[in-house]
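Researcher: If convenient, please comment on what follows.
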Amino acid sequence: MQFDELKRREFMSLLGSAAAASSLSWPSLRAHAQEPGRMRRIGVLMNLSPGDQEVQARLAGFLQGLQERGWAVGRNVRIDYRWGGSDAALFRKGAEELLQSAPDILLASSTPAIAALHSLTRTVPIVFVNVVDPVGAGFVASLGRPGGNSTGFSLFEYSIAGKRLELLKEIAPGLKRAAVLRDSSNPSGIAQFAVLQAMAPALRMELTPVDMREADAIERDLTAFARQPDGGLVVVASATQGFHRNLIFTLAARLRLPAVYTFSYLVSDGGLLSYGPNSIDNYRRAAEYVDRILKGEKPADLPVQAPVKYELAINLKTAKALGLDVPATLLARADEVIE
């Protein structure tokens, strides 16, 4: 679904609501806007969908970061949005349309988004957000010296995937098996599974990979996995994780599978447990890079940055429904506990 299919006023109202819900202080556009000059154009290619509350919160963080640096939508900057969901064809179409609008800079959310943009331009600056392995994917030459037209903010190091398996075992110590829901077409999904495989023997767990691309296949494979006892679920980070989250929550509850996720918003929505970066912070930080590039710096010289905030979130209601007693030591380490 594309941005021009939404009413602009309704969308900005939603972003304002998301900002308020996230305790964001929106500065005055007039007070912080730059002096009148050439209108700059930012193209934004997002995963998920425009009506998703998590997307609204992320974009609210990005817009706040721009406003704090003197950029005011409609005064000195225009932002064009396109959406890919979990469809490679939509990412490609959105990337083509954004480039046709002659943007000064592009913001790419997720690996599929930057892959689509990177395949079409090596000259327009790109700031990416929430990309797992930008070096391995070929988007940058190195983290310290990207060397091309792209730079941005990585999602996490692969070792974090192993930490999630440890946390799942800690909250449900009786687990002996885990289905690993990952996108097998995404190199980062393959790498995260490799880390989990290396960790599994020490935790005395067996892993079963499950493809996350098609809803029908997810339901079929997880149902088959749950026929045997003592099973849990690890949902690895990918663009399709958020897109299929309602289905995954439903299946985890119905099949009584304790599950661990990447982002805390997934726990707020009903997931059991998550460990990963703050999902909004990287968007605020991305605004700084956009600002610096618009003012003349080059992506090639701006190092790729790792997350600075990691969060452990636990949903006690979901734990109770699964018959789990959350260890006090785990609760003490949690950044967010949902009653």
Confidence is low (pLDDT under 50) at residues 1-35.
